[in-house]
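Researcher: I'd like a structural prediction for the single chain below. Treat it as a standalone chain; there are no partners to consider.
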Amino acid sequence: MDRVTKTEERNINTVDIDVSSSLEIARMINNEDKKIASIVETQLDKISEVIDLANNAFRNGGRVLYFGAGTSGRLGILDASEIYPTFSESGLFEGYIAGGEKALRNPVEGAEDNEELGLEDLILSAKATDKDIVVTISASGNPKYLTSIISRAREIGAKTVAIKCNPKSEIGRLSDINICTIVGPEAITGSSRMKAGTSQKMILNMISTGALVKYGKTYGNLMVDVKALNSKLVDRSARIVSDISGCTYEKAKEVLEKTNYNVKRSIVMIVKNCDEEFAVKLLKSENDILRKVIG
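Model: Treating it as a single chain, here is the predicted structure.
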C-alpha cells in the first residue's frame, strides 16, 4: 500500500514561493485553494450518506464522534464546539484529538502513532456504543491512533466513516463510508493544514449542518434553535421570530423575553396565539420540528 499522500509531494506551482512578493504568495495559495470546492463536490454522494446516518443516529440516542490527530483533530473539535451556540444542542457531536487537550495548542510527540490512546479516547472518554457514528479525519489516513479506533468501533457495532486525502489509506480500507478528497500537493510541501484541512473543514460543515437541518434545527435556512449568548444573537433571534411569524421586531423581543429567548416557542406562541405551555406541547407532539407545527 502506498502510504504517501499527494500532500507530501512537491507543488510545481509554488517552488519559487520563498522569493516571491507578498501579493504573489497570497495569489499562489489562493490559486491552490480555488481547487478545493470542486474536489469536495466529487464526494457529495458519500457526504449525504453520512448526513442521513447522523440524523438517524440522533433519533435513536446516538452521536457523531470525531477523531483526528493534529490539524484534523482540531478541526473536528472546532466543528463539534460550534453546535451549541448555533443549534442549542450539546452532546450530539463530540470531538477528540490524539494527545488530548494539550494537543489543541502544542504537538504531542508520538500521539498519532499510539493505538492505546485511540482505544482510551473511544472507550473511556467517548464511551462509544453501537448507536454512534465514528468519524476519523486524516490527510494521510494512516495514523495508528485512528486505525485502532475504527477497528474497535466496528467490533462494538458502530458505523464508521473516514475523511481523508489519500485513496490508499488504512482508515479508508477499514471504514463503512470513505470520503476521499485528493487535493494534490500543498503550497508548502506536507503542510496539510492548508488544502487538506480546508477540504476537511468543508466536509465537516456539510455533515453537521446537514444532519441538524434534517433533525429540525432550522426553519428554511433560519437558525430557529440559535442560543442567544450575546447581543448579536439576541438581535438575530428577534429578527428570526419577526421574519417567520410576521410580527414586529418589538413584539418579537417582548415574547422572546417571556420564553428566555427560546425562538421556536416564541414563534409558535405568536402564530398559534397560545401561551408557552401549549407551545411546548405542540412542539413536543411534532418532535420539536417547527415546520410541522406552523406549516
